[in-house]
Amino acid sequence: MSVGPKVTAKVSMESLFRIFTVPEAPDSTLGRIEQHLSENLEDFLSSHIVAQERPLYEIEQDFGLSQIPEQPEFVSDHTEKLLQTLVAQSVHTASPRFIGHMTSALPYFLLPLAKLMVGLNQNLVKIETSKAFTPLERQVLGMMHHLVYGENDAFYQRWMHNADHSLGAFCSGGTVANITALWVARNNLLAPSDSFAGVAAEGLPAGLSYYGYSRLVVLVSERGHYSLSKAADVLGIGRKNIVAVPTDENNRIQIDALRDIAREVTESGGRVMAIVGIAGTTETGHIDPLDEMAAIAQSFEAHFHVDAAWGGATLMSDTHRALLRGIELADSVTIDAHKQMYVPMGAGMVLFKDPALVNAIEHHAEYVIRRGSKDLGSHTMEGSRPGMAMLVYSALHVMGRKGYELLINTSIEKAKFFADLIDRQADFEVVTQPELCLLTYRYIPASLKRRLRAASPEQIAQVTPSLNVLTKYIQKTQRENGRSFVSRTKLTPAQYHREPTLVFRSVLANPLTTEAMLRDIIEEQRDIAEGAPGLLQRVMDAATEAGL
Amino acid sequence: MSVGPKVTAKVSMESLFRIFTVPEAPDSTLGRIEQHLSENLEDFLSSHIVAQERPLYEIEQDFGLSQIPEQPEFVSDHTEKLLQTLVAQSVHTASPRFIGHMTSALPYFLLPLAKLMVGLNQNLVKIETSKAFTPLERQVLGMMHHLVYGENDAFYQRWMHNADHSLGAFCSGGTVANITALWVARNNLLAPSDSFAGVAAEGLPAGLSYYGYSRLVVLVSERGHYSLSKAADVLGIGRKNIVAVPTDENNRIQIDALRDIAREVTESGGRVMAIVGIAGTTETGHIDPLDEMAAIAQSFEAHFHVDAAWGGATLMSDTHRALLRGIELADSVTIDAHKQMYVPMGAGMVLFKDPALVNAIEHHAEYVIRRGSKDLGSHTMEGSRPGMAMLVYSALHVMGRKGYELLINTSIEKAKFFADLIDRQADFEVVTQPELCLLTYRYIPASLKRRLRAASPEQIAQVTPSLNVLTKYIQKTQRENGRSFVSRTKLTPAQYHREPTLVFRSVLANPLTTEAMLRDIIEEQRDIAEGAPGLLQRVMDAATEAGL
Q: Where is the signal peptide (chains A, B) (predicted)?
């Protein structure tokens, strides 16, 4: 595409003025460029193909210069270059055959709204740079709080727009949300007293010493998200003090083990600071027994946090919300709107049952977030932030609770369909059944499938490494073929005596994924496996050697 | 606007399918809505008026419901509502008369690119969901690293795309950037040794105890951004251990005081973990003597961080970059692209001189950011993140270094013009002169202006409270009038014997702000003051009482 005469772009205050001035849409140069971009984006998004495989080192050549270019570039030239080097080499996360991660398709109406949001360029840290966006964000947090806790109208009338309290914090994502929750938990546990200014002021070593704890401990199942150990590192608690509690055969935390470990920690002078339940583990999609965990948290006077970054949206389904029963007992809950709420990347939230809880992390300054102001920045870890809450607001309104319910229900049904489909194959097996719309599975030679289930731990240990090599090969080859994408992870399945097992991981959130596509994905994986006789032979050799 | 027949929106899988399917642009319903939105946004952005004042409690009525709506809404209806309740009530941060904060105008070409970025919905935590966006982000960090440190080509060839190292971390904003820098500093100081697993694993109390420090201390001038005490809280160091070093009459850190305090901390068993220099204080825009601070940091073996969130872009001006001399000696530097780099909200960066420094915060998981992968997520505090780096990339290319240079130079010249203009008024005075494009000033009755400069500390203390009341009144009234906006802050100016003094704060970054507009702003402030004879009388009474 060529726009305007090709002369060299020049630096002048006049040309700079122009780029900061409202263009005369839509027949202006920028109008035409935008049209061209939109068409290209639509082509890209409707091509239904996972990114064309080009080796990363080749792509890196296009991004190799380390100096900021001296001279300006025409927008039209720059856009062409972007389409070729970047857009064509990005990942079609919206493709219905991209079923490997929690990033999925977006409803299209969010794109013009996102442009509006960016163009308004509000800064949510303070009212002075956000005005109506501040009550909007508070309302979104209120609605999500209501979804989780279901307090009455009087509660929300009192707290939703209250300057000194907050029903939650909007964050760039689930990691910041989880860190914020544990930060609040830590500061509330080691709170100020008559003779101690509190951990926020005095620091963690002084806090432990004042309260007489040898260490703070966070208990979470071994399926907990890595952001929790990151939080323990950041907050000074230490990664070792995130104690991984064993899970049962359904990847749910073992309640007895949780209680025993909490008791041991306490008896040895440590303090259980928080217990974290997971509502939708990243690897298998399972939900911890939240109500039982809440009871244990209460008995140890520990903060109960639920990481529902991915699974939280399930609360909008009347059919499935009981899976998360007990979540309303949590002191704090993380939900990512950019996961199962179909909002663009950058929309995490943490909700607090008690609106006064955030006072533990309150902060003020002279020029912004002054005391008594309604500035959102006084209760967030981040400072300047964009108005992403608007996209959550729009998605909630345009789709409605019932729209979300339908999306959630359909996703779970699709995952169950896929699990059945896999189980009916002679040469595939489901490793973890879907509770929400996530399942794991693998390819396994037909002759081995049944025998492995009955094998001894030693036999499984002998065969699994070669199966893992095969699984990894299939997953990488399928990704490189570029027609579809499933991810992979390493589990320790109970049915395989906890032997570290590589599996395919599939997330069925995209409403455009059809059953035919799922059949194709299985077919392709089988073809890849059968096209690698050497790897198959290694599996069969290992089986023979193990006496299977 | 009415789009399509007004029937009730219904929930059906078919209607949901439609919103996830590529619309047939541009004559589709969504195409028309987008056109309407664009026109409205352009109207809004070109109206050059600061947000219409409507009391916040009234706006809150529009955002009062706490329940997620059950039924879906038509996009067209929803959009109309958004334009009325949200867009019309947001803040015109791009207005050339909005000179009160660091949020300014955006170049228009970034808006269609932002829509493209949102539509691609990449997740930068891992290659699998970002592909070419990962090398692009690494290149942007490389270019910014080069801007600060100017290493040679071989250095960038070796490190820019290196899997196990990182020249920096892209963040949602300067606060996360500052926290990340101090997190790296803390973890490197309390690093693993033969008999200690390091602070990341063991926690801060164990780290202090192993290394034998009574406390960690961060030294920064009293003008330091509030995000630094937030960082000290989050990281478990404690807000009390951010020690504010006095500043000189130009709001720069006093080097002797810095050295003395560092020595006292060390002698009393504490450890100076980091010294933070500021390149553009939020309140006055001044730059610390970075080279001298670097020398002190080195002598105390402390991490030297420079918070150049706002001022860092000055490095692109050959005329002014010497103001930041010594920044190349910093171990880490924060720069926000959404401040003086004219990129939309949500684009912070922290750069590390030594690409191995980030290993102190490295983390991995089984399903993403595996060891040896080039996944950006292994070295960031955040997890899932959008592809904002693309907008920085585009801005750097379309404007070029020379374009930025011109913007920076013009802003600083404009600030100097404004300062001169103010000083020429009989009834205004500059409180802090601009070093970059930020200055502070206030209205002061002409008869008092000269006399106050020669007044005794006691006299100043007697008069200042009434002047502060007047300043606050003028600033609030001007904001409420809605034609223009300056912010306000509280300083302790040397010329007024450190008496807490409210001032107007003005940031002249918007290239569309004209000298005529600045004259208007002054005129309006004068009119407001003269329209408040009661407040003026209180000032004069206080002066009389003080014998002035």
A: none
**For chain B, which residues score pLDDT lower than 50?**
1-6
- Tokens coding A463: 């065969």
A117 vs B4 pLDDT, higher one? A117
ipTM: 0.94
Alpha helices in B284-325 (DSSP H): 290-299
- 8 A C-beta contact, residue B274 and residue B305: yes
> Which carries the bigger pLDDT value, residue B506 or residue A90?
B506
Best mutation target among A14, A68, A408, A504 (most B Cβ atoms within 10 Å) is: A68
The pLDDT score that the predictor gives to residue A1 is: 37
d(CA B12, CA B9): 10
Mean pLDDT of A424-445: 97
- Asked if B41 is an interface residue toward chain A (Cβ–Cβ < 8 A), one would say yes
Please tell me which of the candidates B63, B67, B489 has its beta carbon nearest to residue A366. Answer: B489
Determine the pLDDT at residue B36.
82
CB A484 within 8 A of CB A99: yes
Task: Give the model's pLDDT for residue A373.
Answer: 86
Distance from CA of A381 to the nearest CA of B (A): 8
Nearest chain B residue to A171 by CA: give it: B172
Backbone angles phi, psi at A332, to 5 degrees: -150, 150
Strand-pair partners of B429: B442
Q: From the list A101, A118, A122, which residue is nearest B91 (CB)?
A: A122
Report which of A401, A541, A368 is spatially closest to residue A463, judged by C-alpha positions: A541
- By residue count, chain B amounts to 548
Contact yes or no for A90 and B122 at CB 8 A: yes
Closest chain A residue to the Cα of B138, Cα to Cα:
A63
Q: What residues pair up with A502 in beta bridges, in sequence order?
A: A490
Q: In whole angstroms, give the CA distance from residue A535 to residue A525.
A: 14
**What pLDDT is recorded for position B334?**
98
Nearest-Cα distance to chain B for A394, in Å, is 7
Alpha-carbon distances of B350 from A486, A532, B33, B102, B308, rounded to whole Å: 33, 45, 39, 18, 10
**pLDDT of A2 above 60:** no
Residues of A in contact with B66 (CB under 8 A): 139, 142-143, 145-146, 153, 156, 160
Among A35-49, A194-208, A414-428, B28-42, name the one with the lowest average pLDDT. A35-49
Q: How far apart are CA A169 and CA A156, in angstroms?
A: 16
How far apart CA A118 and CA A114 sit, in angstroms, is: 6
Euclidean distance between CA atoms B153 and A99, whole angstroms: 40
pTM of the full predicted structure? Answer: 0.95
Higher pLDDT, A58 or A21: A58
Interface contact A91-B130, CB threshold 8 A: yes
Is residue A280 within 8 Å of residue A252, measured between CB atoms? no
Average pLDDT, chain A: 92
Q: Does A129 touch chain B (CB under 8 A)?
A: yes
Q: Which of A349-358, A375-384, B42-51 has the lowest mean pLDDT?
A: B42-51
DSSP classification of residue A73 = -
Query: Pairing state of beta strands B487-491 and A332-336?
Result: unpaired
pLDDT score, position A307: 98
Q: Which residues contact residue B111 at a Cβ distance below 8 angstroms, ignoring those fewer than 6 apart?
A: A34, A115, A118, A119
Counted across chains A and B, CB pairs separated by less than 8 A come out at 565
Instruction: Tell me phi and psi for residue A298, to 5 degrees.
Output: -65, -40
Shortest alpha-carbon distance between residue B530 and chain A (Å): 25
Q: Cβ separation of B132 and A85 shorter than 8 Å?
A: yes
Choose among B12, B179, B239: nearest Cβ to A201.
B239
B257 by Cβ neighbours in 10 Å (0-12 / 13-18 / 19+) ranks as middle
Distance CA B25, CA A109 (A): 12
Is the Cβ pair A401, B119 closer than 8 Å? no
Phi, psi of A210, deg, nearest 5:
-60, -45
